[in-house]
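Changelog-adjacent note: as of this version, every example in the card shows the full chain rather than a window. The one below runs 101 residues end to end.
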Amino acid sequence: MLALEEVRVKYGIKGYSTIQGWIKRIGKLGALPKIVRVETPDEKSQIKELERQVQELKNSLAETQVRFLIAESQFEVICGQQGLDPEEVKKKLSAKLSSKP
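Full-length structure tokens:
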């Protein structure tokens, strides 16, 4: 854990009373959580941007999974219409693709 002086200097806090006031308002130092995180405005906006990117990636993954399920269903329907076993067709396609350089 950082000493009061290190925290004060790192985050540009002018006096000790600010940090001590926080500690008094929150409670005794021993009652505080094991990890206390102080963020600069830059860090806070960077975290928000990363959270936005994570959500965007989750949405993209969900969309991709839906598209895959649709394509898989269409493949099975077409195989059924042609009287083919979808698993056999997959095996043959896989063997063909793996033999190509």
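Structural remarks: The chain has a mean pLDDT of 85.
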